[in-house]
Hints:
single chain; two-stranded antiparallel sheet
Amino acid sequence: xxxxxxxxxxxxxxxxxxxxxxxxxxxxxxxxxxxxxxxxxxxxxxxxxxxxxxxxxxxxxxxxxxxxxxxxxxxxxxxxxxxxxxxxxxxxxxxxxxxxxxxxxxxxxxxxxxxxxxxxxxxxxxxxxxxxxxxxxxxxxxxxxxxxxxxxxxxxxxxxxxxxxxxxxxxxxxxxxxxxxxxxxxxxxxxxxxxxxxxxxxxxxxxxxxxxxxxxxxxxxxxxxxxxxxxxxxxxxxxxxxxxxxxxxxxxxxxxxxxxxxxxxxxxxxxxxxxxxxxxxxxxxxxxxxxxxxxxxxxxxxxxxxxxxxxxxxxxxxxxxxxxxxxxxxxx
Length: 332
């Protein structure tokens, strides 16, 4: 509520209190209770948002070509185009469960997991990025048709990391931390019409999207190059691949490089000769068979070719069922 609303409530309270001698305490107390509750709500809303250290996924979007557009249109037309575009883009973020914290000229900053952390925050952020790119293409077509201006598009960057939310002058929109700088770098280095994600985000969504590995890039405040990926599309049927290690720290597979090369080699032979191949992985418990399969899936996830990956899992309880493994693989 505004300060005007608060003044109105306080004036109503004063008028009622002036009638206390006439109407009696019981009547006045009952009448002012609701007004005092409203005042308490106003005071609570006026308090700055508490600071919180949280793991979130940050999305930056920039509208490409807005500067050139402003040079060819008058300020009113430019304002109408930009405001309309940002409204439509914000609606997409909100529909996917994100929250826009800041606008700055022709870009926006959104967060997934600011109010309630969910396991699929990174996945929803990447889906949002793809939806924003699609909307950017629509906007570009509309601007070109209406104003004969080419090059209007969007680019998006996504990164997952720990940030400090709340506090400061603009408590609702305050977000601080190195993760914000990295997310901004993802957007700044993305080509127009593209979505770039960091390795930290990729580890959360591996297996869900088709991605293209990129050369490492530098970012301010980060002492080593950042591994990034361009997201091309969502897979039609996705299996999120498990991660090993603590949070964003992934452990490298050691001692199974030859076996992984054999698996990948069998795929190359089968693809080249277009024939069926079968490979059996055998080993004692704890030798790393599951990890080897995970690394094989990760390598397939980065393969630019298109193919089906059918997954099935043997279960001891199904050992007497005919074709149980085949049924499990195909039924799901």
